[in-house]
Amino acid sequence: MFIQSIPNTVHQSCLQRWVDEKQRGNISRKVLCPQCKAEYIVVFPSMGAFVALLDALEEITHRISPFIAGGVLLGSIYWIAITYGAVTVMQVVGHREGLEMMESADPLVLLVLLPTIPVTLISAKMYNWEDSVLLFLRKYCAKIPALAYILPFGNVEGDRGAIISGQQNNTNQNGNSHLSPTRIFCSALLLPTISTIIGKIFFRSVQNNLHRTILGGLTYITIKGALKIYHKQMLYIRHSSRKILDYTESNLKLYRSAMASSATDAVSSTNDSEQVI
Questions:
Q1: Cα 135 to chain centroid, rounded
Q2: % of the chain residues with pLDDT over 90
Q3: pTM of the entire structure?
Q4: Other beta carbons within 10 Å of 255
């Protein structure tokens, strides 16, 4: 039986369109056959030395553009850090004193030290000193009755409390804290401003701007840390005192009534706030 062979032909326009789709505007990209992986022979007519020079310049520009963009971005961040450092110095020390200090300093020293101010603030904010204090209080001060009026320790079972405490330690060591990078960034950079405001409000008698700002910062950090320690301890007691009830009709009714009352309280508080507004 004779079978007539059909020649393997393809439309030139279809082939050109397929090559354009594969190259995606980059004429130097190789085009391979999807079946045998052989490279297609794509030939371009010679357009002269000037066009070849323009092609080379276009390729060089395409390759170095990411590095230029990265350099511009790093330079912008660097000068923003310098500006923030200079503003922080004038805010903490005083506008006139800060200007005099920076004018009398070596410019090279300013270019090195001023960007370290925001970096130092962010790095210090990443260390949660409240967790260390809280662990110390749980370990050594839980047996002191007088501290129970300040920081409640709760009636937590030993095994359950040890498990929860171990989980929290692993979370802190692994860096899986609830603080987001944006929160750390904002709270760290706003610390000088908040310290200055608190210093002007509560320490007006202090004449030195630097001392007043330091006192305001220490007050803010202490109060915020104490509230954070108290909140974490209450969450620890709530989590470690958790109970799982039997799935009975009485417990189910009790659970549903508690959820309904919580929802009612939330709605009533929302309505009260809307009336106040």
A1: 25
A2: 38
A3: 0.66
A4: 12
